Amino acid sequence: MADNGLEQDWAEETVFCNPPYGRAIYDWVFKCWRESRKPGTTVVLLIPARTDTRYFHEFIYHRAREIRFIRGRLRFGDGTAPAPFPSMVVVF
């Protein structure tokens, strides 16, 4: 599918990824890490700061170029309530 980011080649691109926060997040984090290994490719990822997850330890911790933990909780769109979790920005 042309619009499915998981199926796209990100080589030699700078990509910002704010994936769905459900069960598929593992696939997205893996994709971001894998694509970032291609020459000329930078990936910036906005995800929940869940440092206890398998994907954090397999693909982010000790592999990301940079991890930034966001102070406070993000608000999305016109929402008045903050996200129920902390967030982080990961740069590969």
Please give the structural blueprint:
Blueprint: E1 14-17, H1 25-36, E2 42-48, H2 54-60, E3 66-69, E4 87-91
Parallel strand pairs: 1-2
Antiparallel strand pairs: 2-4, 3-4
Helix pairs in contact: 1-2
Give a brief description:
This protein is of the alpha+beta class and 92 residues long. It has two helices and four strands.
Arithmetic mean pLDDT: 94
> How does the major sheet shape up?
4 strands, mixed
Strand order of the largest sheet: 1-2-4-3
Series of H and E elements: EHEHEE
Structural Rg: 13 Å
Percent of residues in helices comes to 10-25%
Low-pLDDT parts are none
Q: Care to count the β-strands?
A: 4
Q: In DSSP terms, counting alpha (H) and pi (I) runs of 4 or more, how many helices?
A: 2
Report the span from N to C terminus.
25 Å
**Shape from CA axes?**
globular
Provide the domain count.
1
Strand content: 15-25%
How does the helix and strand content classify structurally?
A: alpha+beta
Describe the structure.
The protein has helices at residues 25-36, 54-60, and strands at residues 14-17, 42-48, 66-69, 87-91. It is α+β, with helices and mostly antiparallel strands and 92 residues long. The protein has one domain (5-91). Strands 1-2-4-3 form a four-stranded mixed sheet, with helices on one face. Helix 1 (25-36) packs parallel to helix 2 (54-60). The two termini are 25 Å apart.
